[in-house]
Amino acid sequence: MNVIGLTPIIPIVFAFALPLFSILIKGNRKIIQFYALIGTGLTLISSYKLFQLGYSSNVPLVYTFGKWIAPIGIVYEVDKLNALIALLTAGLMFLIAIYSYRYLEHDEGLEWYYTLYLGLEAGLLGVLLTGDAFNLFVMIEVTSIAAYALVMFYRDRGDSVFSGLKYALIGATGTTMYFLALGMFYGTFGTVNFADLSAKVHGLSFPVSGMPAGNIVITSGIALALATWAFLIKAAIVPNHFWLPEAHPAAPSPISAILSGLVVNVGVYALIRFLYTVYGGSLAPELAHVVSLLSVIAIALGAVSALFSALMMNVQKDVKRLIAYSTIMHMGYLFMAVGLGTELGLQAALFHLVNHSIAKALLFLAAGIFIHAIGSRNIEDLSGVGRRMPIATFSLAIATLSLVGIPPLNVFFSKLLLFNAFIDKNLILAWILVISSVIALIAYMRLFYVIWFGKPKEDIKTKEPLSMSLTCLLLALTCLAIGLMAPTIVDNFIAPAAAQTLDYNSYINAVLNLLSKLLH
Amino acid sequence: MNEVITFIWTVIILSLIATVIISLYGIARRPNLTKKLIALTIFTDTANLLVVLLGYRLIYPVAPPVLPSFSKEALQTFVKTAVDPLPQAFVITAVVIGMAVNVLIAFAIIQIYRLYGTVDARKLGEKQSTLLKEGGI
Questions:
Q1: CATH 1.10.287.3510 holds for B2-134
Q2: Which chain A positions have a beta carbon within 8 Å of B98's beta carbon?
């Protein structure tokens, strides 16, 4: 069996089989949990194999569904970039599945929760692995539908249904924009395969799909603008951010961790694919002008969202809303780095994406332990709870310090890379990074002070739930380990991935070689 | 004859773009959640129609993309007259996915009506802000 095709198939099969299986076992919660752990665990093993394959090969690997090679059929194309993010996704999904069991102990409908959870994982892996722009659209929709439904998981609570509805309306509008962009790409280039599109954009010849028709500069401009708008909505960059601070807190805490840690990455990853693989490298002057204009817009909107949400973090009363605004801030950094268009910028973006996913998931999970114990999201209600739960508080401390960028934790090193990348472009960008980090530090310290030193309102007798705390501890130690080994990780994993992403020729040739074998 | 076809073609494209803009206005500004959903379906359908138009060929006679027999002559007439089938395949996928999203949104609107007794986004916004001040779970 080929592991590339198998990776997104495992969670989707487990997801579709779960509702029937749960009738068979009469909704036994322990068996359902075991089933979900097997599903996510097998996906993790498969993604690890994929990671090894991707890093042991110098060229991107191509998997053809039913031997239909691109541009006729859909292909999955794995390079180091998506192999790394796929491993991160599968690892976090597995750990959060362990955490979910205790968190949802008082709630009905665990089987539906895990059906959507596994569907979400399949969608995320599909987005990462696909080498086809239309399949990317389908997989974004799979991810989004699962995410909308999981935000509405507490369906008897008005706020969660209403914010899920807002998320669904704006998300559906965004994906339709992307669909329009796809129509334009197809009308002009006669293909929706990434390798084929990239070849056509760079003026290389590619068999089967013919030559581009019409004015490629204007259609590229409009289609890229529409696609970028869709990705801005998915990644919640100002002014398309308004759904995130409501949707992420309304979901159950493990789902907030997934939404803030992994689902927002979809927008960043898709933008990297479009700006670096399809429209990367040296282009015709008019086309290069369009792409640089788009990059400037991405940088400007990223900078605005970083500053805006750093300020908004300080006025929040709801602990999960505070963390949700921090997600917008970090997405702003990522868009700034992606917009730079340099190799250092891409390295910084990739390393920061990995670090942010781990630290943000950890922060939501640690806060979730307190929310689970107290039953409130208000920061004032959580005062003093920290001293009852030392492991969770330790995890919270590591996560907040890491996200602010205190050495030797992981985000410090990626912020250092970001700083170096920004300073090459413009000093103002580097200052925005520093200032927004400092403002965020104040908000985090206020949260931490209340949780550790605040006076408890009543005597809290809850014990620390071990399965939840140990998951957090593991993630906290991962943060520490990545921080301590940062130079090795950058040299061995991040730099090769960035270099391979910039090399669009190898991406095209991987498909072209298979195609020429078939034609001759 | 040619100018007439170009004129009709332009009118169709422009009216579709106008529909896109009106439906976006509907999604953003109509306070009634059900009308927002209707505007969203208009938006997705217009996008689908635009993509179907891409595959259409301005030729006469035009035929559906069906190959009646596997011979050279049949293939020649097929290439001359058939429309591009791939945009239709895109659209059928998008329609199916859109149905799933619409059903989910419709469920959410019904659930909101059950919980609050209103589907007016302005009134719901006021209720939300008071709820968050109390800091409920």
A1: yes
A2: 172, 176
